[in-house]
Write a structure and sequence with these properties.
Elements: H1 7-14, E1 17-18, E2 23-24, H2 29-34, H3 40-43, H4 49-69, H5 73-86, E3 90-94, E4 108-112, H6 118-137, E5 142-144, E6 153-155, H7 168-203
Antiparallel strand pairs: 1-2, 3-4, 5-6
Helix pairs in contact: 1-6, 4-5, 4-6, 5-6
Length: about 210
């Protein structure tokens, strides 16, 4: 598994909550286990106590995205470094069960799960993945969706650093809203122009011929 993949862990956790909509999907140990995806072994370690722990880590990861989105690179890095220090990773070279065309192990870097508890293991991986993305592509590649009220986190992988929304759905919704706002403004301006012209016409004295 490539290091870049681990950054998705951070996004996945942050987006279990939508503060503006008062929506929280992280409410049970089952919802915690779902965050591990196909890593069933790590998911099985999760207990009810991890719900509160995951929520705490989620708030800290969201703070990283908020700082980055707000242009405060130093704060974003400091917040992420605090997570890296608290939840160190255990890097290993792994081949898993994958083989290349010659039948040899497909060696790659793998971040081993922390043995203490599910939260520590997940956070170590998420923080390291996010750090890898940040140092490889830049702090400004960490963003929060601009389609209000959505503020989901995303990682900008576009070639021109142009991403502003967490999904195509939010991008479409924002574009439709912007279009409707422009049309309303055009209608209002047109109405004002007509009213001004009508007022001017009525105020102009008629000339008897």
């Amino acid at each position: 598994m490539e290091l870049a993949h681990y950054s998705d862990y951070a996004v996945r956790l942050v987006n279990t909550e939508e503060p503006a909509r008062a929506k929280d999907c992280l409410t049970s140990v089952e919802s915690v286990r779902e965050l591990f995806g196909t890593n069933a072994q790590a998911a099985r370690r999760a207990t009810d106590a991890d719900v509160t722990r995951f929520r705490s880590v989620r708030a800290r990861l969201r703070a990283v995205f908020e700082a980055a989105d707000g242009g405060d690179e130093t704060l974003a890095v400091d917040l992420l470094n605090s997570l890296l220090l608290e939840f160190p990773v255990s890097p290993q070279i792994s081949g898993h069960d994958t083989r290349d065309a010659d039948g040899k192990p497909d060696w790659h870097m793998h971040l081993a799960d922390h043995p203490s508890n599910a939260t520590a293991g997940f956070t170590a991986i998420a923080a390291m993945g996010l750090a890898f993305h940040l140092t490889s592509y830049g702090v400004d590649r960490l963003g929060l969706c601009e389609a209000a009220p959505c503020r989901n986190a995303y990682l900008d992988t576009s070639t021109n650093r142009s991403r502003r929304y967490c999904s195509d759905r939010c991008a479409t919704r924002a574009n439709v809203a912007a279009y409707r706002a422009r049309k309303r403004l055009e209608t209002e301006r047109s109405g004002e122009t007509e009213r001004t012209a009508d007022t001017a016409q009525r105020s102009t004295p008629s000339t008897d011929r």
